[in-house]
Amino acid sequence: MKKIKKEDINQEVFDLYDDYAHNKIQRRDFMKKLSLYAVGGLTMQSLLSFMMPNYVDSILVPQDDPRLDSTYITYNSPRGGGGIKALLSKPKSNTEKLPGIIVVHENRGLNPYIEDVGRRAAAEGFISIAPDALTPLGGYPGNDDEGREMQKQRDKNEMLEDFIAAFNYLKNHEQCNGKIGVVGFCFGGWISNMMAVRIPDLGAAVPYYGSQPSAEETAEINAPLMMHYAELDKRVNAGWPAYEAALKDNNKQYEAFVYPEVNHGFHNNTTPRYDEAAATLSWNRTLLFFKENLV
Fold it and tell me: What pLDDT, on the 0 to 100 scale, is given for residue 65?
């Protein structure tokens, strides 16, 4: 059987996966609807395998990268889930205080992709922390399907407190210069927006395809923002016009980019929604934005 390529897949399959990944439909319904596209040489198993994340072959900065010190720590989140596990990464043998970056996972816990993003940030000269909001339930379970089910059991505002606590932990870290930004993906994009609302001295926020705060909440933002959206992501993009209007009405500092012909999740290089050009461009923009605002 020939190898499936992204171009072989109908856009409706990506939309269907998005609904499944964001708890709009149950797995049974996802499988039933996916079967309708198992035609023309595509089997259900090959389609399902193609759509699921491939962590084994997709890590860019491994855990044992010799440039980095990357270890798991536990910090206290008194208004959230208590003791929260996180991956703390920083350049090895560093003697200077570094700007900090909080990396916020999607709606499935601290999976290998998000850990990798944390290490990517550290490789660029930041001290990064990537918390696992599933810690109170035992932590990321090793696969995204179970992770999504677990994350649904937690209150999103309580999880927001966990990431605010990560900001406080990093701000007081002896190797951090006190200037901290946040980048988050999907659920993490919403967290990034809300951290900008809740934390007056947040240095910068970069939400990737994240849900937006209300107009009243937007008025509370102090941090400069950089938003990344996918053109084909109709679900999240529906909230952007009102958000942009509120940002303009309140004279907030922001940049927003809509990447053409890409799907929600385009930065995640472990799934076929990944778009290398958009992911690379957006990440380079993000790093430059952090360096301009945090260094």
Answer: 97
How do residues 57-71 score in pLDDT, each as one tens digit?
999 999 999 999 999
Which pair of tokens denotes residue 138? 């035992």
Contact 129, 103 (CB under 8 A): yes
Task: Please indicate, yes or no, whether the overall pTM of this predicted structure exceeds 0.85.
Answer: yes
Using the Cα atoms of residue 46, residue 270, residue 134 and residue 23 in order, give the sign of their dihedral: negative
Q: How are strands ordered across the β-sheet holding 254-259?
A: 68-77, 82-91, 127-131, 98-104, 176-185, 204-208, 225-230, 254-259
pLDDT per residue over 151-206, tens digit each? 999 999 999 999 999 999 999 999 999 999 999 999 999 999 999 999 999 999 99
29-43, 106-120, 280-294: which has the minimum mean pLDDT?
Answer: 29-43
Q: Which residues of 99-130 are buried (b: 16+ CB within 10 A; e: fewer)?
A: bbbbbbbbbbbbbbbbbbbbbbbbbebbbbbb
